[in-house]
Amino acid sequence: MKEQERGSFTSKFGVIAAAAGSAVGLGNIWRFPYVAGENGGGAFLLIYLFFILAIGIPVMLSEFTIGRKAQRNAFGSFRKLAPGSGWPLVGLMGIVAAFVILAFYSTIAGWTLEYIIKSVQDGFRGNDTAELFETFKSGTFKPLLWQFLFMVVTAWIVFAGVQKGIERYTKILMPILVVLILSMCVRAVTLDGAEKGLSFLFKPDFSKITFNVVLEALGQAAFSLSIGMGALITYGSYIRKNNNLSNTAIQVASTDTLIAILAGVMIFPAVFALGLDPKAGPGLVFEVLPKLFMKMPLGYYFSILFFVLLAVAALTSTVSVLEVVVAYFSEELNMSRGKATIISAASIWVFGILATLSFSDLSGVTIFGNTFFDLMDYISANVLLPLGALLIVIFLGWKLGKKVTQQEITNEGALRPKLFSVFFFIVKYIAPVAIVLVFLNSLGILKI
Ligand code: PHE
């Protein structure tokens, strides 16, 4: 593809909507509560917030910088900025990560579609929601069908171009999602016995911190911010030269973090008040929320709207993941956008069947005690993304260098971001060392 033919986001708000659309998704509303629940709640939240600040925002800004400077896909960006080196392999690793993430993410995204239908049919009333969930996910056909449909819609939007579809709709839909979650928070915290849930989320119990909790917090921070796999390099390549990248990164990361915390405030009081188990795993929100809706005035309407918006939030994320692969195929392998979209979506879909059937026909197939789904979820968030993030900051700090980075971030000197030196110091020293320490610790090689 020639330079002029590359798309670009048309406005400042469009950039935020697309990038926040990528960041905000199932990671915030489905994954955050269940991972926090399994890892001790408050202590997890604290470490998570630390990682967002110390690693998440710097990596996000680094990815935007690489993408906008190079104006290429994740692989091509490294090749352009570091020709003849091994760095493009980092981009390639991102493309592999995109495959793994989309394969299992589309399973859960498919579940949201089933839950839209259940809401419309008023199917939660009078039923045991845990049982409903169990019956649905252990079926073969329906979960596969929904996953397929979700992939088709994702592919269709990517094919049409990110700008005209996603940019336009996320601007309207994201704010509605926030308002909705807020109302659900109000209901959740006014349930009898809600305090237990709030203290679970906000009172850190430091005895719960283990190396694994630290790694899970890093993985969740990376996953939730969409960093470490080139999604934001790819989106960065569509950002215009006059955009203030530092502000964009801060706004996107704050929105994302706010929504994750709100999701926690919505879920945990309900979990405790309704006598459920915070360690319920991937099914957590699908079992808890329907119960919450049944206890709300206008719960019927709330539940429909909520699952529709959850599906939309998931969609704006799946689009950004697929875009990584499609941009790579079309720019590096010279495919048309249509062909690139069909080939990548179809192969991810096939791979994704393994994830969906992990809850039914393949639930007995485990590797090191994990189903395919668990393995894909764990490896992408806790290995591939932190590793990608590590290599990205090393690239910026040690290969691209301070001068070039400063030029790009200051829009050739037009802007004066106050904390540039702090940012560069974090990127060059703090973030890499922190990520390496977390890795070594969790491998048991080093114990601090
Ligand atoms: N950040 C998305 C979410 O929280 C998931 C995602 C991960 C999207 C990595 C793109 C890249 O749902």
UniProtKB/TrEMBL annotation:
The keyword Membrane applies. One of its GO terms (cellular component) is membrane. CDD domains: SLC6sbd_Tyt1-Like (cd10336). Keywords: Membrane, Symport, Transmembrane, Transmembrane helix, Transport. The keyword Transmembrane helix applies. It is a multi-pass membrane protein. The chain crosses the membrane at residues 12-30, 42-66, 87-108, 144-162, 169-189, 209-236, 257-276, 300-329, 341-359, 379-398, 419-440. It comes from Salinivirga cyanobacteriivorans. Belongs to the sodium:neurotransmitter symporter (SNF) (TC 2.A.22) family. PROSITE patterns: NA_NEUROTRAN_SYMP_1, NA_NEUROTRAN_SYMP_3. It is found in: Membrane. This is Transporter. It comes from the Bacteria. GO terms for molecular function: symporter activity.
